[in-house]
Specification:
Blueprint lengths: L3 E9 L5 E10 L4 E5 L6 H9 L6 E6 L2 E2 L10 E4 L11 H11 L4 H15 L14 H14 L4 E5 L7 H18 L2 E6 L2 H7 L2 E6 L2 E6 L1 H6 L4 H6 L6 E8 L2 E4 L8 E2 L8 E8 L5 E2 L7 E14 L4 E6 L17 E6 L11 E7 L4 E4 L18
Parallel strand pairs: 3-8, 3-9, 6-7, 7-8
Antiparallel strand pairs: 1-2, 1-4, 4-5, 9-10, 11-12, 11-14, 12-13, 14-20, 15-19, 16-17, 16-19, 17-18
Helix pairs in contact: 2-3, 2-4, 3-4
The chain binds adenosine-5'-diphosphate (ADP) and magnesium ion.
Keywords: ATP-binding, Cell membrane, Membrane, Nucleotide-binding, Translocase, Transport
GO molecular function, one term: ATP binding
Organism: Conexibacter stalactiti
Length: 385
């Protein structure tokens, strides 16, 4: 086992594409770290540089206590697991899993023991004589993991390993991966574009965009204190509602809000005057005729869609305040907001005009130009009396 460090790692492809830009990431021995971001943001490139499949343009990658920039892929002692399994179709499950050990000329008895242990861990014991085309997608992915496990590498590198599985199986495999990591404790760098996967699987998550890491933190830290509007919108589903507004010396004005006096933000952001983006998580809206004490912001919107999901209901509503294009990410939200409630009470119907209320403490504020969170982390601030 070993720690992994990216120290100012940059990748510029021959055609000039800057795929990874000054990546700095410290993954302690035994950690399961998730690198998450939209398609094309540089995740696979980062992983391939670590595996030795792609040259590093600048910076250093350190595995354990050695710089591995110039170490051959086969000598790096990392095992990569891909989305498309990459199994040998003509080999049995047993032979697929034994392959990396045989390549290393491991004694036959040890090969058998290694394969048996991995097969047991992954529930593949009954399938060792089958070929990949006789397996389901989930079983194939388990074999691919088994093949990585038998090598007992210093680190696992996983590139969207669950993307080819259906939703139910993906959830199940997430659980198995977590269990496997608890058992083996092998340092893992796991890449995905799926924020749900990132939130449920990683002890820490690094959010990447355009080759640049935006924020690294525990899932709840990213959710509660996003460093910028991109992280705020990327983490969480439905995404955070974002509208335009302005801070004017301690008061917050939201564009399109009916009360022209603006929101008393209770002593936060003192002395700040600037154009901002104001964010609210869907669960921080409350539906109701009138604001309750302490609720500072009210929007009256028209209900578009009501999704009853059992434990919770999501009400989508239109409001002119919605910021369509947040920090350059046109994610097709249009002018629709989402409000989440945990059932109970009378639900509105599409077409109804309804009031949505939020308290000042639920608001996230980002600079309208840079998208960076303004001033102190929101939830660390003590609410003013
Ligand atoms: N071999 C290559 N040559 C040039 N550009 C590439 C190459 N591989 C990937 N890219 C570009 O680098 C960027 C990052 O790609 P990639 O690492 O595959 O992102 P991700 O895995 O996050 O989807 C993208 O813009 C992609 O088009
Ligand atoms: Mg990729």
């Amino acid at each position: 086992m070993a720690s992994i460090r990216f120290d100012g790692v940059t990748k510029r492809y021959k055609d000039g594409t800057l795929a990874v830009d000054d990546l700095r990431l410290d993954i302690p021995d035994g950690e399961f770290l998730i690198l998450v971001g939209p398609s094309g943001c540089g995740k696979t490139t980062a992983l391939r540089m670590l595996a030795g499949l792609e040259e590093i343009s600048e910076g250093e990658i350190v595995l354990g206590d050695r710089v591995i920039n110039d170490v051959e892929p086969g000598d790096r002692d990392v095992a990569m697991i891909f989305q498309n399994y990459a199994l040998f179709p003509h080999m049995t499950v047993y032979d697929n899993m034994a392959f990396p050990l045989r390549m290393r000329r491991v004694a036959k008895k040890e090969v058998a023991e290694g394969v048996r242990a991995a097969a047991q861990l992954l529930g593949l014991g009954e399938l060792l004589r089958r070929r990949p085309n006789q397996l389901s997608g989930g079983q194939r992915q388990r074999v691919a993991m088994g093949r990585a496990i038998v090598r007992q590498p210093a680190a696992f590198l996983m590139d969207e390993p669950l993307s080819n599985l259906d939703a139910k199986l993906r959830t199940q495999m997430r659980g198995e991966l977590a269990r496997m990591h608890r058992r083996l404790g092998t340092t893992t760098l796991y890449v995905t574009h799926d924020q749900t996967e990132a939130m449920t699987l990683g002890s820490r998550v690094a959010v990447m965009r355009n080759g640049i890491v935006q924020q690294v933190g525990a899932p709840q830290e990213l959710y509660r204190n996003p460093a910028n509007a991109f992280v705020a919108r990327f983490i969480g589903s439905p995404p955070m509602n974002v509208m335009r507004g302005a801070l004017e010396d301690g008061r917050l004005r939201v564009t399109g809000q009916e009360d022209g006096a603006g929101v008393d933000v209770g002593g936060r952001w003192p002395g700040q005057t600037r154009e901002v983006l104001v964010g609210i998580r869907p669960e921080d809206w409350r539906l109701g005729a009138e604001p309750a004490p302490g609720e500072a912001l009210t929007l009256r919107g028209e209900v578009e869609v009501v999704e009853e999901l059992g434990a919770e209901t999501i009400v989508y509503f239109r409001h002119a305040a919605a910021a369509v294009d947040v920090a350059g990410e046109d994610d097709g939200i249009g002018e629709t907001f989402a409000a989440r409630s945990e059932g109970g009470g009378r639900l509105p119907a599409p077409g109804d005009r309804v009031a949505f209320h939020a308290s000042a403490s639920a608001l996230h504020v980002f600079d309208a130009g840079t998208g960076e969170a303004v001033a102190a982390p929101l939830h660390a601030a003590s609410p003013a009396a």
